[in-house]
Amino acid sequence: MLHAIPTEKFGPLGAPMANAVSACVHCGFCLAACPTYHELGQEMDTPRGRIVLMKEVLEGKMSFEAAQPHVDRCLGCLACEPACPSGVPYRDLISPFRVVAQKQMKRSPGERLRRFLAAQTIPYPSRFRLATMLGRIGKAVMPKKWRPMLELVPDQIPPAQSWPALNPAKGERRARVALLLGCAQRVLDPDINTATIEVLTCNGIEVVIPQQQGCCGGLAWHTGDLAAAQKFARQNLNAFPDDVDAILTNAAGCGSAMHEYHLVLRGTSDEARAESFRHRVMDVSVFLAKLGLREPLRETKLKVAYHDACHLANAQNVRRQPRDLLRAIPGLELLEIADAHLCCGSAGSYNMDQPEIAASLGEQKARAVVATGAEVIASGNIGCLTQLRLHLKKLGSNIEVRHTMQILRDAIKLTSRQSS
Question: What pLDDT sits at residue 144?
């Protein structure tokens, strides 16, 4: 019950956690949607089971150590939220609980080192680029648990790329937006940002790239590092301008994290700013679908399967818009994937934290993609794209892995006005 959790003990995050716990009626509708239950078949590895465990811990009836293995196995995919008839805000519980647990848990030296290295590299593109290069060189002598994350790195790291602070709209300006570039995305596939900017500007949208922007803070927030998450959130609150129609993201995980800034900064002097900020954040597909494509698209006979990134479909309720944009391409055949609700197993640093589950989910998703007969798989999240690329390669598949914006960019038919 709500009153059984001493909310004051857990500071500003106590009330959201208690509210989430009290909303659960233990009906079990979440079980079929949960990828870890699908993998492990254990009640404690379901949202319902984890809610019970977290409730017991918060009430002081169970140790953090007893609950933590099951909480750690949660991907944070939020597939349970749309499946829940009671509307349990699971996101208001899982990340705040990890913040509380982070202060209490005693982890092994190896685990602490892995988490430290991930936190000090992935959110910083220059460091991440160097780490991936060094990691590939030393992969053979690295501990086995560290290798799964390196498998996600492309054989060739694309050259470092930068983008102008101001990218003018082509033709009549219809809107002005600011774009988050992402961290890992800038290193692993910078063309996603290039394609996004080209699609926006060709459709009359001026794109501002705030030069002081940083990591969205998602990795820190989802692993319980509240101080780092708050630092990144404040950096972006200060970096992004007010004179834009929207703040756009092209990575589902980043957009989801920015939508939770009100929780990250709850109880601080920046809470009101965070609440206002998050309502200005939207996925690029949502903005484009709402504004409408202005430019004609080149006909293509491609068969494209669309993969719902969890933090786009579940966390942001964005499913229709990317599909509508792809269907706008003449001749393109859009295919659906079986068991589309199941996570691909990427989930930030999950490949490093839970490599066996991540690998199994990745292989299943890749097999489902192959079964569609698609030539291209599209998605809206860099983590999903790298996971799909890895496991399709392991299956010997030559299906191309592309971001939705890259497919749109390739289909834009440049007019004489734009090419002049």
Answer: 65
CB-side neighbour CA atoms (13 Å) of 231: 9
- For the stretch 172-188, pLDDT in tens is 999 999 999 999 999 99
Cα gap 413→199, rounded to integer Å: 11
For 166-289, CATH number out of 3.30.160, 1.10.10, 3.40.50, 3.30.70 equals: 3.40.50
Which distant-in-sequence residues (6+ apart) come within 8 Å of 357 by Cβ? 35, 36, 39, 40, 73, 345, 350
Pair 278, 257: CB distance under 8 Å: no
What are the φ and ψ backbone dihedral angles of 283, each rounded to 5 degrees?
A: -70, 145
Put simply, whether the predicted model's pTM sits higher than 0.85 gets the answer yes
Token pair recorded at residue 392: 């399709």
Token reading at 367: 């097999």
**What gap in Å lies between CA 254 and CA 229, rounded to an integer?**
12
Task: Identify whether the C-beta of residue 233 lies closer than 8 Å to the C-beta of residue 264.
Answer: yes
Residue 154 near residue 175 (C-beta atoms within 8 A): no
The label of the residue with tokens 């570039």 reads 181
CATH number listed for the domain at residues 2-104: 1.10.1060.10
Return the structure tokens found at 416: 């004489």
**Distance, CA of 411 to CA of 261 (rounded, Å):** 35
Delimiting residues of CATH 1.10.1060.10 domain(s) in the chain: 2-104
Which portions of the chain are predicted below pLDDT 70?
1-3, 136-150, 414-420
